[in-house]
Design the sequence.
């Protein structure tokens, strides 16, 4: 007897790790309902675009993609197309007016309701599910964990900081923390599944607090680091002013907390930080970096930087370049200021011409490339444990991440390593954005 053909889904994802985990949640719900993922979008019966709205370019990309995918409905009238993620929350019902072939809009706080929405949807009905319900569904058994090397766990959602450039409080809502016991249960579940690396997620992850209790992120780090089987522990994204000495101390106390930290500074100028509403100074940022490196000498730092923010002078930009040189970031994610709807920065005077912002961005990226190459060259000759994540070009090379989050490529010979395993690799060559090595000879 020939079995009926299973329906297929395609999910395209932009943005941060929070969006990656939301995609895993949606995929799990669809698979639980009997659908299967497809390698070709043309074969899909449902297309989900999980969007990011932090920058204007990312928003434009998702609407361009929606325009391209609408043509598939001519060959498959039953095809459903859904806009999900932060752009969905931002534009809401207007997305249906803008895209007549769009079937539903699903905000990031509602992704746990995807299967329910599809089940109750009537033929031809168009649905908008946005907003921030009091209860968010975190059914860990329905998450389709992508890959086999890293298990992601949401600990806090939303943000209350209201930086003048940032749209996240509008698209992700106010801060909502998950209880410690729920987090620990999910971590133990991931370890039993086979993950060696756990990554705790939140827009301001180090502002986690036990709901109704006294514990803070230092306590959470301590408890998760003690879970048997957690060989590597990461967390992202931290807010500089939320770091406390007790949190810094966890780096010293637990060797399985990875010697890597993403710590967005955004600018090296106090004047710009004030206009951005960041709530800290460059002096306090420097002192935090000193404390972190005193606790963990091998700590690699990465950061986010915005150039061309309204009112940024040549002097402000030079202060940013000076900070980058002083701190020696292992990596930098630098972007031109992108105006976002509803943010306070839209009302700031003294916009920076685009060509000047582009020139500053290129100077900063060139500076960082020189710094990164120098830091990576210091690792040549070292033997490092690499968590295997995939394959590189040419195909006989495997890829992975060191504990300090650097990308390493190495020959698969004599034995290819399973994804999710840890391989010792001797570093032989340094590039600005990756390392090349070899597996040591076993004698």
Sequence:
């Amino acid at each position: 007897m020939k079995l009926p053909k299973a329906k297929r889904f395609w999910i395209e994802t932009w943005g941060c790790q929070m969006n990656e985990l939301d995609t895993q949640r949606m995929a799990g719900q669809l698979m639980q309902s009997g659908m299967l993922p497809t390698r070709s979008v043309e074969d899909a019966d449902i297309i989900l675009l999980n969007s990011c709205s932090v920058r204007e370019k990312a928003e434009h990309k998702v609407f361009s993609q929606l325009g391209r995918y609408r043509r598939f409905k001519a060959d498959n009238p039953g095809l459903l197309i859904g806009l999900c993620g932060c752009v969905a929350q931002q534009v809401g019902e207007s997305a249906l007016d803008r895209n007549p072939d769009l079937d539903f809009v699903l905000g990031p706080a509602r992704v746990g309701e995807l299967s329910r929405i599809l089940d109750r949807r009537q033929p031809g009905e168009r649905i908008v599910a946005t907003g921030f319900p009091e209860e968010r569904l975190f059914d860990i058994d329905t998450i389709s964990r992508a890959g086999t090397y890293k298990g992601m766990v949401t600990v806090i959602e939303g943000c209350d900081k209201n930086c003048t450039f940032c749209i996240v409080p509008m698209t992700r809502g106010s801060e909502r923390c998950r209880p410690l016991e729920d987090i620990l249960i999910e971590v133990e579940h991931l370890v039993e599944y086979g993950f060696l690396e756990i990554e705790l997620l939140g827009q301001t992850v180090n502002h986690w607090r036990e709901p109704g209790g006294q514990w803070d992120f230092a306590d959470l780090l301590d408890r998760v680091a003690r879970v048997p089987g957690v060989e590597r522990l990461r967390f992202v994204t931290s807010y500089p002013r939320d770091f406390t000495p007790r949190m810094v101390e966890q780096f010293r106390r637990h060797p399985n907390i990875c010697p890597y930290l993403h710590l967005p500074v955004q600018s090296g100028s106090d004047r710009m930080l004030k206009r951005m509403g960041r709530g800290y100074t460059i002096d306090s940022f420097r002192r935090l970096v000193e404390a972190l490196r005193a606790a963990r000498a091998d700590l690699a730092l990465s950061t986010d930087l915005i150039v061309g923010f309204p009112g940024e002078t040549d002097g402000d930009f030079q202060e940013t370049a000076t900070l980058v040189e002083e701190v020696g970031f292992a990596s930098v994610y630098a972007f031109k200021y992108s105006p976002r709807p509803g943010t306070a920065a839209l009302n700031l005077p003294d916009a920076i011409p685009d060509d000047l912002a582009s020139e500053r961005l290129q100077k900063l990226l060139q500076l960082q490339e020189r710094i990164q190459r120098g830091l990576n060259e210091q690792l040549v000759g070292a033997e490092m444990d690499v968590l295997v994540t995939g394959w590189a070009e040419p195909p006989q090379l495997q890829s992975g991440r060191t504990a300090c989050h650097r990308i390493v490529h190495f020959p698969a010979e004599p034995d290819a390593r399973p994804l999710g395993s840890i391989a010792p690799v001797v570093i032989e060559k340094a590039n600005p954005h990756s390392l090349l090595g070899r597996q040591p000879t076993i004698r």
Observations:
- The chain has three domains: 8-129, 144-376, 383-438.
- The chain has a mean pLDDT of 93.
